[in-house]
Amino acid sequence: MKILFAIVLMVFQAGAWAAPMETFKFDSSEQEAVFQKLSEDLRCLVCQNQSIADSNADLATDLRKEIYGMLQDGKTEDEIKEFMVDRYGDYVLYEPPFEPMTWLLWFGPVIIFIVGLFYARNFIAQQRSSGPSTELSAEDEQRLKNLQSELNYSDQNKDEDKSDTSGDDR
Amino acid sequence: MTETKQNNKSMLQRFMPLIIFGLLVVMLGVGLTMNPRLIPSPLIGKPVPVFELPLLNKEGTFSSEELKGQITLVNVWASWCYACRQEHETVKELARSGLRIIGYNYKDKKQDALTWLARLGNPYQQVIADEDGRIAIDWGVYGAPESFLIDQQGIIRHKVIGPVSSQENYDELMVAIKQISENKL
Questions:
Q1: What is the pTM assigned to this prediction?
Q2: Is 0.85 exceeded by the ipTM?
Q3: Are residues A90 and A133 in the same domain?
């Protein structure tokens, strides 16, 4: 019972500091939406795996304030992003920009997928043709022909020479 | 003839997954051994941000204009920063060697910063105080210590992330200083 109580406490404790947002007052709901989007798109540089929106770090708080101030000054989403990239580099964006340097990053997965598809197709085709083989080895072919001609011979007594030149008829 | 060709092909095909796996291991290995804390600054090669900040230990202000004229190291530090304490001896040594060093006190309480300097020594020609860290955003500072090497024209030429006392950081800084002074001659 005590343990259960402790667990409950722990869970609620976690909830208590999950949302580091200060209370900002926005002029409009659109402005608030842009703020939310920006702070989720921008990476907190100190904690790295959190966005500015998620992070409790001091720098994240400062950057949220900065974004808020810029929005109040009438700056657009792109202008604010540019402001951050100018100072912290592309790294600050969770979604890397589309430019020659990052083409491999963007196209890499698609290229690997296509190569994989290609490979899988070849592999399947190969498996199919070599699987439970329908082709006989030269030796077996010979034996089959011999047997066939023997049968023919005993049945009809016609194709006498076939048994000698076996292998060529089809 | 065709059979050996086919054999070669199937050999390559058979080992393809292994080759791809090997490449992945190499790539991930390189990725893992890089330090994710090192984020290259986009400010390298650009002029220092324009600012004017109060001095920490005396009356008056310090402006970005004053960074021009000679090679200068701007050393971002704070009393709450453990690694700053570690690098401080090296910073002092650099100052003794004749490099102009400006202290940039980052998000610190004035009294704490002054006590820290009194205890550990003050190698800085000037100490600027950025209490709320607003100007530090313009510098792209995301932690302390960080140091910026600025040339005579006020262009940021090199950024040290972390303590200058680590061998790697120290060597890189020396190379950068050498490059700037050779350009000048």
A1: 0.70
A2: no
A3: no
